[in-house]
Automatic annotation (TrEMBL):
Cofactor(s) listed: FAD
Keyword Oxidoreductase found: yes
Organism: Microcella putealis
Binding residues annotated for FAD, in chain numbering: 33-34, 231
Residue span, Amine oxidase domain: 13-435
Oxidoreductase is among the record's keywords: yes
Pfam families: Amino_oxidase (PF01593)
Coiled-coil residue spans: none
Record GO terms (molecular function): oxidoreductase activity
Protein name: Monoamine oxidase
Record keywords: Oxidoreductase
Record-linked PANTHER family: AMINE OXIDASE (PTHR43563), AMINE OXIDASE [FLAVIN-CONTAINING] B (PTHR43563:SF1)
Protein family: Belongs to the flavin monoamine oxidase family.
Amino acid sequence: MNRSDVIVLGAGLAGLSAARDLAAHGVDVRVLEARHRAGGRVDQTTLPDGRLMQLGGEVIGPSHTAYTQLVAELGLTLVPAFAALPGHDVWMLADGRRVGELPFFDDADRASYERAEAEFRRLVATVDPDDPWSHPDADRLDRLSVGQWLREVGATPNVVRARDIAMLALAAESVERTSLLSDLRKEAVTGEPGFYNYDVWEVSRVAEGSATVALRMAAELGHRVTYGAEVVHVTLSSSGCTVELATGERYTADTVLSTIPAGPLRRIRIDGLSDARRASLHRQRHALTSKVTVAYAESFWAADGLNGTMYSETGMMGGTWVQRDGILSALVPPERQSAFLATAPGRVHDELIDELAAAFGPDARDAQSLIVRRYAVDPYTLGYITSWRPGDVMGVGPLHGTHEPPFYVAGSDQWVCGYMEGAVRTGRAAAAAMLTQ
Ligand SMILES: Cc1cc2nc3c(=O)[nH]c(=O)nc-3n(C[C@H](O)[C@H](O)[C@H](O)COP(=O)(O)OP(=O)(O)OC[C@H]3O[C@@H](n4cnc5c(N)ncnc54)[C@H](O)[C@@H]3O)c2cc1C
């Protein structure tokens, strides 16, 4: 009775997009999802006034073609995201609040930034994002942190500081703990190589809500998705695979596609997998983050000529951006999780509001809603997006993103970095690989 052609583990964007394509080709597919909802790292809630608040992934860039294509197929609409908003950035620096573009830069810093970025761009052009391992200098580039490399090419301390602030606002790891090769690989997929830039990665959002992408697919798949189904054990064999849930219930199929994030995947016992693949999958890790979403009646910061974007060296939040009218998003970067997780929830709320008031003024105290999602410790995420510390690209190795039939893998961890694009791109590619098997 619990038998299908393919079992997909996880009903995030990767699992759902793979299952949708398989079902469209007449494959009998079942999706097993531990949570009682679809979407995984995309989620949303509706405010009493009807505005949707995104509690997970939100924005995409023009090179995110798999996601864009899926959005069009689902009849959803892309609209400009915060990068297009007018106004000034706010900087909460160790030495005080500043407004404007890189306010601690002088002319020498600006020239140094341009030189370092030109050199970064030159290096990006030498990296094949599908095969960074074959780069003649792959080992060295992977062992170097972005921070070390910046200093090697003569970047000023303020350039390193600016890059670090930008990375922490994204809740990525510090430039001192990020592999240069991973960063080169990530920017190589954009077609506009340079340092990570909101204008390249964070340009559009789905007007109907980014979680709606997942919800639409889950609705299409209907009974094929089983919720509250935490997978604990997978047995792989060319004569048939078995998937066992925490409840002891068993499902069988010819093929298994895992879209489980790196942390929770380590807790699943998988028999029949090669040691090399297990080592590669278990080597991956996430940046640990939490997301904060705050709703106001309106975008009050605009009256002060601000665009709602904030960068913080001092707070629990790494920065903010405008999610939509009156709603700010923020991430708590990995290095600030300990202070964040060690603080009582009520106190966290007060301290976040204090940070927002320090950045945007007293109106920031009139929040209608403040929601915190602790993805870092959520048992079914244990992270945020893949983090590549120095040595990790070579450590994970060329098995990354590949399959070992009857075991397939997809999910944003199997792309160059996290991102909704990575989930959809690898999910649909895994389905295509199964269909041509
Ligand atoms: C706070 C936050 C902000 C983000 N912002 C952006 C953004 O602006 N733009 C962008 O492109 N990306 C963003 N991302 C990343 C993006 O949301 C993810 O990369 C993408 O949604 C991951 O999809 P996935 O299907 O690969 O994994 P997931 O969405 O994590 O799906 C995996 C599924 O597996 C399930 N699962 C886990 N363990 C088990 C188990 N044992 N048994 C069964 N099921 C299990 C989970 O419940 C989950 O539903 C953000 C992520 C977070 C957390």
